[in-house]
User: Which sequence fits this backbone?
DNA sequence: TATCTAGGTGATACTGTGTCTCATATGGAT
DNA sequence: ATCCATATGAGACACAGTATCACCTAGATA
């Protein structure tokens, strides 16, 4: 779970990032940042829209999507595709990593590349494919949930 | 690239699969199967709809989607998510594997699990996560395209 | 071969996500 | 305090995918 979008200490990072990329720090952006940070695990655009409307009535639908896009491009949020094919978003650290998504509670854990690089290199060697990007999503039960239902 | 949906020899497999699962072999299904097999690499639903309308005018939009769903559940087709976030489909073998998608020509190559199992096991061990499913998509240049533009 | 029926189809309307446009508002540089 | 590029909100739009429902047909049965 990320802390990069938390209000307080974490917000500094967001502000710095927006600033560095020449984006303004606006009310709606802060509001969306707080809503995203408040969410445990992944959420759909629809859920966030409901949140946004409750937290700050009058915030535009387009603005929420735009902000989500912006945060995605800054790496604070990532789009994931659930096993069912639905789209969702998760707050995360702006460094390369992957998500392990709990199918029970919905929370996501960031995991690093533990050896995946080698796997991709092996694939490239075998197939002549020159790998430039990849996406790995992992689904299962987080430690808390698998303890609960063994 | 798969041969499972090819007409001729490959169609046997499709027929057998439909039959085994208690599905009928109908005209529209064969037509869609041929269109999918004729496509090199991934394609969007929209593209297939255009194809379908050209190949067999009168074929219903819903039928194409239904057939795509059916083939997906049989494993002959898989949904992939392009880097841009768009959905696409690819014809493929009905065994567990991953796709390496060429960002230049769009063709996809099936790759097997070369060591990914170990990676997932390592992730599980580290994080206490009990992995039940995963999705790996690889993007880059296929051998032909990377030879062309070095 | 004729009959029967569960499963499949096409037409159409609908839902939901995400985008576009454009007039208005505002952050933050000066 | 002023100014203007950037951001916003409203609402129309585009598109993917689903639901419904009357009709049709593959293929099992007799």
Assistant:
């Amino acid at each position: 779970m990320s802390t990069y979008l938390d209000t307080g200490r974490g917000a500094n990072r967001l502000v710095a990032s927006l600033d560095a990329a020449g984006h303004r720090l606006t009310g709606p952006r802060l509001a969306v940042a707080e809503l995203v940070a408040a969410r445990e695990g992944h959420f759909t655009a629809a859920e966030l829209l409901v949140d946004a409307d409750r937290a700050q009535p009058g915030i535009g639908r387009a603005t929420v999507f735009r902000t989500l896009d912006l945060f995605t491009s800054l790496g604070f949020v990532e789009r994931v595709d659930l096993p069912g094919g639905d789209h969702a978003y998760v707050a995360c650290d702006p460094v390369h990593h992957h998500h392990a998504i709990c199918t029970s509670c919905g929370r996501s854990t960031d995991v690093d590349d533990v050896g995946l690089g080698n796997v991709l290199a092996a694939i490239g060697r075998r197939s002549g494919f020159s790998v430039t990007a990849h996406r790995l999503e992992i689904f299962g039960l987080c430690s808390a949930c698998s303890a609960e239902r063994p």
